[in-house]
Design a protein that fits this description.
Layout lengths: L1 E12 L2 E11 L3 E5 L6 H8 L7 E6 L2 E2 L4 H5 L2 E4 L11 H8 L8 H10 L13 H14 L4 E5 L7 H16 L3 E6 L2 H7 L2 E6 L2 E7 H8 L6 H9 L4
Parallel strand pairs: 3-8, 3-9, 6-7, 7-8
Antiparallel strand pairs: 1-2, 1-4, 4-5, 9-10
Helix pairs in contact: 4-5
């Protein structure tokens, strides 16, 4: 059963249209959402979370219609843009003290577990953190209230290669714990590294949504890797 189901999601702007976007995600799977800048990745993610109001479409989490159960569902999912934009001068432990009040499912043991796993210092403030560490703070906050789904918008953008590789390792560990991860990126090597499924969007339309192996069989030619295939497809080459 799909833990996330998106059907015919549509959003129209004067110069751009998200056109009947559909895909799904199962528990314990990592889906990489790829497309060039401006393809519709962020609009899709914001629509999935009702941060942008779609014109049409169905959004379900855990078999529940999102708009009818938004508050309940948001307690079971985590969202990150890759930055910590609130309380930049507050210590992490102070941010945690505020955040935990919003979640009945908050678990201090889980918080301590991920604090250690991500090697975070709760005495530091967001201003003292690298971009990679800020991503980890968001993940820690989501997982400490036992988020079952992580929705991440460009989490590796701006990270150095070592930090990106470290984050991919964390994704794989979380997947093995049953967490579903949906992350957007234009860095194809990140998809190659950890994704189980690939969802490819171009000009507001889903080109393909399938397993990574199936995607590679369909679109890569002899000697090509995923990045070669993606660049060729974006250029409109056969």
């Amino acid at each position: 059963m799909s833990i996330v189901s998106i059907k015919n999601l549509t959003k129209t702007y004067p110069s751009f249209q998200l056109d009947k976007v559909s895909f799904s995600l199962e528990a314990g799977r990592i889906a990489g959402f790829i497309g060039r800048n401006g393809a519709g990745k962020t609009t899709t993610i914001k629509s999935m979370l009702n941060l942008v109001h779609p014109d049409n479409g169905e959004i379900e989490y855990f078999g529940l219609p999102f708009l009818e159960h938004e508050a309940e569902i948001k307690k079971r999912i985590g969202y990150s843009t890759g930055t910590v934009n609130w309380y930049p001068r507050k210590k992490i432990k102070e941010i945690v003290d505020v955040t935990k009040k919003f979640y009945d499912s908050w678990d201090d043991d889980s918080y301590r577990k991920y604090l250690r796993m991500f090697k975070l210092d709760e005495e530091k403030t967001p201003l003292e953190l690298s971009e990679g560490m800020k991503v980890k703070v968001n993940l820690m906050l989501a997982l400490s209230h036992k988020a079952e789904v992580l929705i991440l918008d460009e989490p590796t953008s701006g990270l150095d290669p070592f930090s990106r590789d470290e984050l991919m390792e964390i994704f794989i560990k979380l997947k093995n714990e049953g967490v579903a991860i949906f992350f957007s990126t234009h860095i194809i090597t990140d998809i190659e590294r950890c994704a189980d499924n690939i969802i490819y969007i171009s000009k507001g339309k889903i080109v393909d949504a399938s397993s990574k192996d199936t995607f590679k069989e369909k679109y890569t030619k002899d000697g090509e890797n995923l990045e070669d295939a993606f660049l060729r497809m974006e250029r409109g080459e056969d």
